[in-house]
Structure formats: structure tokens, C-alpha cells
Amino acid sequence: MRKPIPVQPVIMAGGSGTRLWPLSRAGFPKQFLVLTADNRSLFQQAVQRLQDLACDDIELAAPLTVGNEEHRFMVLEQLREVGGDPGMVVLEPSARNTAPAMTLAALQASAGGADPVLVVAAADHNVTDRAAFTRTLRSAVREAAQGAIVVLGIAPTGPETGYGYIRSAAATAGAARVEQFVEKPDLATAQRYLADGHYTWNSGMFVVRASVWLAALEQFRPDIAAATRLAWAARSADAGFVRPGKAEFAAVPAESADYAVMERCPGSRFDIRMLPLAAGWSDLGAWDSVWQAATKDGAGNAALGDAMVQDSRNTLVHATSRLVALVGVQDLMVVETPDAVLVADRARSQDVKAIVATLEAQGRSEKSLHRKVQRPWGWYDSIDSGPRFQVKRLLVKPGASLSLQMHHHRAEHWVVVSGTAEITNDGQVLILTENQSTYIPLGNKHRLRNPGKVPLEIIEVQSGAYLGEDDIVRFEDSYGRG
User: Fold this and answer.
1) What is the pLDDT, as a whole number, of residue 175?
2) Angle value at C-alpha 221, between 218 and 223, nearest 5 degrees
3) How far apart are the first and last CA of the chain?
């Protein structure tokens, strides 16, 4: 009996999703959001889809996630929620695009002399036909096991200018030889591609042996290959995380897998093929894509959250914290969060990134953070603020602890709302329960821990001359933060 093909699922989870602002932000990007009727994030759905690949001739390894250092605990928490082996998480110290990220995955997967087929999928895509997705990926694995580089193409449904295109020859043996990659075209060119019939959208999913990817990168971009290997040689590992050398990785040229390798393969010694994927795929790259993928009423309205839509057509409402009502409008998107509201024409959904750029230029926190901020120990929600004060609601997970810390510029009052709090304050340890409170003077070393079996909620009132999150001096931390 032939040995099964070793397969390493790779989930690329380092994107920022700026066109889905205000829901997607740098601190909580779209791959970790629930955007569909399925009550799981896009990242969780990607992990579970790839788990389906195992069969008689495919031996599936635990997932390998490549993500941002800042999102490491979010990755672990969401992997824990869907169960199974969390596998390995490779953390990018900085964003260098998909070619270095794939190379990190290939180096990790080939450690010890292994040479698995990498199935590389983005963490922020949506697929409605999971069975068809699995069948296509299994076929791609079998092609890649013979040495091919396989890209998955999507049959165009319109002259989309937001996707790259793949021109392919006639299909042979289940896959088509790739003749050309074309980056995002203008509208007239996209219309011509649609009429031609030989073009598919580039899904950004790749299936390739680790050794083939590394060889192709060595040939086409030896600078990226050499710099990434240096960063990998300087790696460290702890608690399921692998961290490439920070300074070395910052020196890696930033480049996409398409530009660095895929577009150079046609006509070379590398056999690159396109396999069509008909599985209800969408990259949910903008709010209009979310509307297209959503369940709609008879008038084309899609609503998620507490929403009322009256006498309106082809609208999208996404409400997270309050009632949103629409009356007598059409082709609008309304996305509400506790600290920002977006109202836009659906036809202009790609232009949301301009708002994000303006927020960044103005140094506004709404570009990166929600009012509710995730932390490895739980979360905090900034309820109110004013001159010299700020009020936060904190949730600490059972068994979790904040760092032992102090502040130079603020004092804090803590009131326990529910659960049990173990509080260290200037060397003294006390236990507080519901409706009890304590005071942390400016400059005191302090720590908050949840010793119980249920979540701990407290209200924190800060007062002082400066209340920024950077006024924290950490002495001890369970999560490796400086």
C-alpha cells in the first residue's frame, strides 16, 4: 500500500483588513471576527476546513499558523475554542508580506528533514460549500505531491478589479497549465478577461511541497530566501510559539508570494497549474463582499445584530452595541460599533481604506483599537473618560492574572462586580468578592488575579495626570510581555 501524502495545513493570519473598518482594526483584524451566520470567526472556519483534508492517502499534521506577534494570544484562544491540536504558531515580528511568511512555514514544516505538501490558506476567506472545497484541495494535494505548484482559481462572476487574475491553458489531467498572472486590472481589462473565458480570479491559496517552494524562492528571489533563513536561524521558541529573530526579520524584503514566485513560474522549470475552485468562495475583502455573502430578505437587505430595515433595498446593516434603523434608503452600508459608525454607498466599499489612512495620519486610536480591547488575561472596555479620569470594565478569565505592575501617573479604584479577586497591593494580598472595593495608590506595585472558577468582573476608576496605556511598568508577567 502506498504511503499517505504528508500534508501541513498553513493558515496565514497576519492581515489587517482595513477595508472592513470600523469592525476590523489593527488590534482585532477581520480574520478574528464573526462576519457570517456561522457563529465562528473566519480564522476558526479556515482551521476547521483544513482539518477535513485527512483521508486514506493524506496524512494531516496539526495546523501551522503564521501570524502577528500582537495577535498571538487571540490565535491561541480561538484555536482553543474550536478544540483539537492547536499545532504550532509562528510569529512574525513585523509585517513582511506573504512570501516571507510562506517561507517561515516551509522552514518550520521541513524541520528534521520532512518535506510535506503545504496547503496554504488565508485566515480571512469565506467558503459556503465545505465539501466541494475539501474535494478540490485533496486533488491539489495529489498534484503537488508530484512536484507541481498548484494555485486555486475562482471562476469570475463579474469584471472585478480588486482581484488578481490567472490566465490558464486548457485543462489536462484535472488541472490547467498557468500561462500568466495579472495583477488587479482596470475595469476595461477586467471586462475583456471575463469575456475571454481563460481567466480566473487568483484566490491566494497555494498547494506546494515545502522543498519546491524553497527552491523556487531561491531561484527567483534569493535575497528573500537568504534573509528569511537568517531570521529563522535566530529564532526562539516558547509555549507553542516560534519567534524568528526580530532584527533579522526586519531586514527581510517585503514581498507577496505572487510577485516573488508565482508570477515568475510560467515558462520556467517549475510546473505551475491552476485548479478551479467552485465552493462559494469569497475573500470578504470589503463590506460589499460581506453583503454579497450574507443571507438577505426579499428586498436584498442583509442585517446582523439589532437592526430594523423599513422600505429599503440592497442594504447592509451590522450593529454591535445598539439598535440601528434604516428607512427608505438603498445600496447603503451601515456598520455600527460602540465608538464609530460607518455609512457608505455599497459601490464605494473599497474606499473605506481611505478613512483608515486618515485616522492613522491624525493619530486616532479608532484606527487600531476598539473600545473593548482583548488581552491574554481577558478584556477591558473603556466605559467613560474625561479630564484626569477614566472608567473601565475588566473581565479576567478563571485562573488568569494581570502583570505585577505600577503606574507613575495614576491611581486606581477597583470595585468587584462579580467573581472573586485576589489583589496584591504593595506587598499585601487580599481577597475581595462582589460589592467589595480597594484603592491602589500611585506608585504601588499591584496585581489582579482571578483564583476562581468563574469570570471575574471589576469596575476600575483611574485618576491622575496621565492615563495612557503606556504608563505601565511590568515587574512580572505570565505572558512574556516586557
Assistant:
1) 83
2) 90
3) 53
Please name which of 108, 116, 114, 103 lies closest in space to residue 218, comparing C-alpha atoms.
103
Could you tell me the pLDDT band of residue 197, with boundaries at 50, 70 and 90? Answer: confident
Segment 130-145 shows an average pLDDT of: 94
pLDDT per position as a tens digit, 242-292:
999 999 999 999 999 989 999 999 989 999 999 999 999 988 888 998 998
Contact 439, 410 (CB under 8 A): no
Alpha carbons within 13 angstroms on the beta-carbon side of residue 481 total 20
Assign a CATH topology to domain 5-282.
Spore Coat Polysaccharide Biosynthesis Protein SpsA; Chain A (3.90.550)
CA distances from 97 to 203, 221, 349, 468 (A): 16, 14, 23, 31
How many other C-beta atoms can be found within 10 angstroms of the C-beta atom of residue 119?
25
Structure confidence at residue 481 (pLDDT): 66
CA distance 329 to 258: 40
Side-chain-side CA neighbours of residue 195 (13 Å): 6
Nearest to 46 by CA among 267, 284, 367, 270: 284
pLDDT at residue 15 greater than cutoff 80? no
Partners of residue 340 on adjacent β-strands: 337
CA–CA dist 142, 365 (Å, integer): 47
CA–CA distance, 290 with 334 (Å, rounded to integer): 12
Strand segments, DSSP code E, in 320-362 are 324-327, 332-337, 340-345
Question: pLDDT grade, residue 1 (50/70/90)?
Answer: low
pLDDT at 172: 52
Residues 402, 448 contacting (CB under 8 angstroms)? yes
Confidence (pTM): 0.83
Alpha-carbon distance 104 to 220, whole Å? 17
| b/e code 204-237 from CB counts within 10 Å (16+ = b) | bbbbbbbebbbebbeebbeebbebbbbbbeebee
The residues with which 103 forms a beta bridge, in sequence order, are none
pLDDT for 33-76, tens place per residue? 888 777 888 999 999 999 999 998 999 999 999 998 888 888 88
The contacts of residue 119 (CB under 8 Å, 6+ apart) are 7, 8, 9, 10, 50, 53, 137, 140, 141, 205, 207
Return the domain boundaries, the chain.
Answer: 5-282, 287-358, 372-476
Q: In Å, how far from its chain's centre is CA 358?
A: 22
Residue 170 pLDDT exceeds 70:
no
What is the CATH T-level fold of the domain 372-476, as seen in this structure?
Jelly Rolls (2.60.120)
